[in-house]
Write a structure and sequence with these properties.
65 residues, three-stranded antiparallel β-sheet, alpha+beta
């Protein structure tokens, strides 16, 4: 359980530092955190946001090479 909380906080800090905006909402009766990327109007879950951020960072890395 401690590992899960640490991973969640790490993902929160990573997304937040890259300019993603969090919001708390309810989905099927359970509280969830959704993220909106900078320049995007789509709200996605935490896992999808991490995937999108990974693609964005790798794309920027490949563009600089």
């Amino acid at each position: 359980m401690i590992q899960q909380n640490m991973n969640r906080w790490l993902r929160f800090l990573i997304l937040w530092n890259y300019g993603w905006t969090p919001r708390r909402t309810t989905y099927l009766g359970s509280p969830v955190v959704q993220w909106c990327g900078s320049g995007s109007l789509v709200w996605v879950g935490e896992k999808a946001a991490m995937r999108l951020l990974t693609v964005q960072v790798l794309d920027d890395f490949n563009r600089c090479r």
